[in-house]
Amino acid sequence: MDRKKIYPLYIAAIPALMFIIFFILPSTVGYYYAFTNWSAARTTGLKFVGLDNIISVVQNSKIPVAFANTLIYAGVKTVLVTVLGFVFAYILNREIKSRTALRTVYFIPSIFSCLVVGLIFSAIFQTRHGTINEILNFFGLESVQWLGERGTAVFSICTAEVWRNVGYAIIITLAGLQSVGADYLEAAQLDGATEWQIFKNVTLPLIMPTVNVNILFSLIYGLKMFDLIYVMTGGGPGNATESFGTLMMNEMSAGRYAQSVAVNLVFTIILVIISIAYQKFSSRWETVE
Description:
This protein has helices spanning 3-6, 9-32, 52-59, 62-92, 99-107, 114-124, 131-138, 150-178, 182-190, 195-223, 227-232, 244-253, 257-282.
């Protein structure tokens, strides 16, 4: 069958052109400013400074913390969202009462904006009169500065991010589970396979493309985390919860525009490398029907 007759070239050309005009070109032009002396004090007559801003970013004492935190956010989100999404989707795919209502309930957090989620969890983890500390005090335990120390603040942010995103993972995984043909499951049952053997050897390999989509989305958006961190801690205390996203914002707010773009450029390169590497290795896990 001639696919060119089914899908004319212009169908793909039009969105590709729009993508180039509204994303590629603005991004490329924007990265130019990473190599200039652009700042709040100098917005005209910019000069080319070469790699000075990139070197300044690499030598910035905040970069190691931001890099480590970004990896923590992405890693925790990817693992928990993928695993919890799979577990809940597997349960909701079975014949249980009120499963339609439960699917709706699990997906509700995903429709909230990051601002709303940030405010909710800021109130939950607040040191004074926060929900969790009120519970701890009720049982005679001391309050914890959830957003006042790096370890607990990172934990709080990760908790909020996982709660907000697990609904998407459930829906995507559920779609993959429902696409598994009943013929495969019936054949395995006739062969005497146990439920675990069916899951391990039939279901899981067939839905690996779906799992990979969940992992890739969680990884990319975990690396790009900004708004939730900014609402809950602003990158603080100090720069303890700083990520690449908040570091860009804080550099821009301080009037160091070129350095902010340089941070974005460095982060984009890291993001592209991680995405390509993951796609290269994840393709080995997929089973094609």
